[in-house]
Amino acid sequence: MNGYIINRLVRNGYIKEKERASYQYGMDVLILNLIPIFIILVISVVTRNIKFGVIFLLFFIPVRINIGGYHCKKISNCTLLFVLLYIFVLKLSTLSIQLILKYFGILCILFIMLLDPISYDIIENKVENYKRSKKIIKAVSILMIVILFLLNDNCLLSATSMAGILNFCLYCMGRVDLRRGKLL
């Protein structure tokens, strides 16, 4: 399917032949990133936690993309781990420790705002990307904290806290792997 789309784009002159591999890679990454998101949304619908799932993804994804952290070596492991972690945080959010999770989530979000993003790619404009990532992290983190302080909706509080906690944990795991010299 991806190959068909890319071939059509090349044939119709929308992309150059020499750019084919880059666009193919981009399409593959897009599809592989949509699979776990789709699975999480299905789990959320089945467990009747769609609001939690959507809010969790809305806060988890932009911070995760920009802060970096632990990455699995295989895409299948990454998908499985993300889905299992989501099921874990969904279950954790139903326990009667909401206040603890809220304050721990706030702490994690505050730490995230202070952290330097982990960059694994060989991107041309590293300084600009770093600055952009820091701005996105701060903006999303501030929004998360506002939700945690101002809104009195337990589902929003849980999803926001869990997104902050999970991002912080994955970031710390990524830093540990970098210090060990592991290629993620």
Give the helix/strand layout.
Blueprint: H1 2-11, H2 20-46, H3 50-67, H4 75-92, H5 98-114, H6 126-150, H7 154-180
Radius of gyration over C-alpha positions, nearest whole angstrom:
18 Å
Helix content: over 70%
Kindly state the number of beta strands.
Answer: 0
Largest sheet: none
Based on secondary structure, the structural category is: mainly alpha
Q: What is the helix tally?
A: 7
Distance between the termini: 29 Å
Kindly summarize this structure in a few lines.
GO terms for molecular function: peptidase activity. It contains seven helices and no strands.
Describe this protein with a few key phrases.
2 domains, mainly alpha, hydrolase, globular
What do you see in this structure?
This protein is mainly α and 184 residues long. The protein folds into 2 domains: 1-46; 50-180, no CATH class. Helices cover 77% and strands 0% of the residues. It has helices at 2-11, 20-46, 50-67, 75-92, 98-114, 126-150, 154-180. Helix 5 (98-114) runs antiparallel to helix 6 (126-150). The radius of gyration is 18 Å and the shape is globular. It starts with a helix and ends with a helix. The model has no long low-confidence stretch (mean pLDDT 83).
